[in-house]
Specification:
five-stranded antiparallel beta sheet, Ribosomal Protein S5, domain 2, Rossmann fold, elongated, alpha/beta, OB fold (Dihydrolipoamide Acetyltransferase, E2P), seven-stranded mixed beta sheet, about 675 residues, about 20% strand
């Protein structure tokens, strides 16, 4: 039963004593008894929130007795009722729901596990716990039996004497949470959050961890609209069903407007008013009972308000939609777009898509294996964690980014709002103390993750309505003096693909004319520079032809520096250069001009134009050499799906032999000399 405590266990125990629980124990008892995980954790947290093995064993005995004595298994309903009759009362753990009995002007409660629909409950108890009037919540209940009432006509002998919701109500929970965070590095804190939801961080790569973090954002950010689609078995709905009493899961089928928003018959507010998070599971099967149901939800997702009758009602509940792909991501993008598994009323509605703040790549999260991915170590007790998350929802941490992050011009107002919400949520998750400093490194990956998750929505809009959503080149700049960085979505990215996003300074796509035997080949040239002098080639061994290309590019940079890079002195910089061959040709022959462009881009800190291949061989005197196979080069560029091919003007006549259909698939631009090529290749 005992486990070996690792560094994170010991650190968490020293900081969060009394708020930890062994996650293997949680799994053991949640499977044995008909209650959600957070109910089991509530009890384990009460009696086993320690790393002392003797205390844990003593607490387990109490938890086992309570779960055994107070949870109602199938077939035991009459046994519990009989105990209530014989003893006068009985304690149980169950969902408690309530409804108004207008005929008798009182509330009555339902206890599903006992199949009781008419249990007496005090009006004050209902007013204090309004969620009883929606889909209810789990609670520790003292149920009494009144034999006198039982003898009355239509009497209700069962009544709720006492009720304790299974959720934490500790006033200083967030203070404890925020203060404890300071003892952890960002990486350690992320790992603790993963263990707290039952996952073992060592079994996941960075991409999967960030999917898990995105799943948590709706718990700390109000009115956040989140979508995750991916393979089955990746635990998409687990967090929204098992971890927090502030979340509600709708599993397939019809969603009623009355249940979601407001019941016009009695004025009762719906799920979005009662819960922090409302999650639609298996979203492909969701439909509304009214034609305007989707429109009402669209309005709510946009503003956090909905109108029913004369009232304009505001709510904070997040809308989460999770579902499955029947095919892999690549195939999904071939047959449609990534949101096509959604209901037909939503899948091609760009206005609906625009309201989605984040689309998490569920395909980056592995299928969960109990032996590999679930944690046996200590994590925060779910009710403590969910309470802290709920209280963090009111905070705004965006001021901490002011003057440090600037979003690119391609983002619309809705894009900026969505990205800001994701960033705000991630910062609250990772830095719950508003006074805790955030490093540039942490800010950068948070910004990149927020931009990526929103761009994924934008790319689907582009697939549906290309003319309106043409510009998806999302970017950011750190600080006033930073270099603009572009953020792509990995599922659209390939090392061999020529993307439309600008490349970082010093990186260039190039095509070598190659040898007559091998033919032309695609290369990616990457250059970095810093104080020093000379050029260092990272390819070892260095192909002689590429060494010659680098030498030619370097000499042209030195001799024409004023024309190419203005007042910058390249002789005061040390350049590191690497070529990455993408095709059969690996010689690096005839790459002098692309090398020169890469040197200039790195020195000036300017991005290379997106979707562009640079072609050209230089000599030491600065002249552009003739290409012997311009048509082959153009055909290769079309195969690589590039948008623009930058070639010397001397190749123009050869291209008369290029087939007509290829001219329509690529834009060819010509340059007259190396300075013209550098100007046209780099972003202005």
């Amino acid at each position: 039963m005992a486990i070996e405590l690792d560094h994170l266990d010991k650190l968490a125990a020293s900081v969060f004593d009394g708020y930890l629980v062994r996650k293997d124990l949680v799994r053991k008892y949640s499977r044995q008894y008909p209650v959600p995980t957070y109910v089991v954790e509530f009890l384990l947290g009460r009696y086993c929130a320690t790393v002392d093995e003797d205390e844990i064993m003593e607490g387990i005995g109490i938890v086992e007795r309570q779960l055994k004595d107070r949870t109602v298994r199938t077939g035991e309903e009459e046994l519990f009722k009989a105990r209530a009759k014989e003893q006068g009362s009985v304690r149980l753990i169950d969902i408690v729901k309530a409804r108004l009995d207008a005929k008798n002007d009182c509330y009555v409660a339902e206890l599903p596990s006992l199949a009781l629909r008419d249990v007496r409950v005090a009006d004050a108890m209902v007013r204090e716990n309004e969620r009883m009037l929606t889909d209810g919540f789990y609670a520790e209940i003292e149920l009494d039996y009144d034999a006198i009432i039982a003898q009355q006509n239509a009497g209700r002998p069962f009544g709720i004497r006492g009720l304790r919701p299974i959720q934490l109500s500790k006033a200083d929970a967030v203070d404890i949470f925020a203060k404890g965070r300071q003892a952890f590095t960002t990486r350690e804190w992320i790992d603790l959050l993963l263990r707290s939801i039952g996952l073992e961080p060592a079994a996941f790569d960075e991409r999967a961890k960030r999917v898990a973090l995105l799943r948590m954002v709706p718990f700390v950010e109000r009115n956040y609209n989140f979508v995750e689609l991916g393979p089955r078995g990746t635990g998409k709905s687990h967090l929204f069903q098992q971890i927090s009493p502030y979340a509600h899961l709708i599993s397939g089928g019809k969603a009623t407007v009355a249940k979601m928003f407001v019941n016009m018959a009695n004025g009762q507010r719906g799920l979005v008013c009662q819960y922090d998070v409302v999650c639609f599971d298996e979203v492909a099967g969701i439909s509304f009972d009214q034609k305007d149901g989707v429109n009402i939800m669209k309005g709510y997702m946009a503003s956090g308000q909905f109108s029913r009758g004369k009232d304009n009602i505001r709510a904070d509940g997040c809308i989460v939609m999770v579902g499955n792909f029947d095919v892999d991501v690549e195939q999904q993008q071939k047959i449609g777009h990534l949101l096509s598994p959604m209901p037909k009323e939503m899948r091609d509605d760009t206005a609906f898509m625009d309201r989605i703040h984040s689309f998490a790549p569920g395909w980056d999260f592995p299928k969960v294996s109990p032996d590999e991915h679930l944690s046996d170590h200590f994590g925060l007790v779910s009710d403590f964690l969910s309470e802290c998350w709920s209280r963090l929802r009111t905070g705004n941490r965006l001021p901490s980014l002011q003057g440090r992050v600037y979003l690119g011009g391609a983002l619309s107002g809705r894009d900026i709002e969505a990205t800001n919400k994701t960033m705000n949520g991630l910062i609250k998750l990772l830095f719950p103390d508003p006074n805790m400093p955030i490093s540039d490194e942490d800010i950068e990956w948070i910004v990149r993750l927020a931009l990526e998750s929103r761009r994924r929505v934008k790319e689907q809009q582009k697939r549906v309505f290309k003319s309106e959503f043409r510009n998806t080149h999302f970017s950011y700049t750190l600080g006033l003096d930073g270099v603009e960085q572009f953020v792509s979505t990995p599922e659209l990215h390939s090392d061999e693909a020529i993307e439309s996003d600008p490349l970082p300074p010093g990186q260039v796509w190039a095509v070598s004319p190659g040898s007559p035997e091998a033919g032309p080949g695609l290369y990616r040239i990457e250059v970095t520079c810093g104080p020093g002098g000379g050029v260092k080639i990272l390819n070892q061994p260095t192909p002689p032809a590429f060494r010659e290309s680098v030498k030619v590019g370097e000499q042209n940079l030195y001799t024409r520096a004023k024309e190419l890079v203005g007042d910058r002195n390249p002789r005061e910089e040390e350049f590191s250069i690497q070529m990455r061959p993408m095709d059969a040709d690996k010689s690096g022959i005839g790459l002098g001009l692309p090398v020169l462009v890469a040197f200039c881009g790195a020195l000036l800190g300017r991005n290379t134009r997106g979707g562009t291949i640079v072609v050209g061989a230089l000599n030491l005197g600065g002249s552009i050499e003739m290409l012997h196979n311009a048509v082959q080069i153009a055909e290769l560029a079309v195969d690589k799906q590039t948008q623009t091919l930058l070639m010397p003007v001397s190749a123009r006549r050869q291209l008369n032999d290029l087939p007509d259909d290829l001219w329509t698939k690529i834009g060819i631009e010509f340059y007259r000399d190396s300075a013209d090529a550098v100007f046209k290749a780099l972003e202005t």
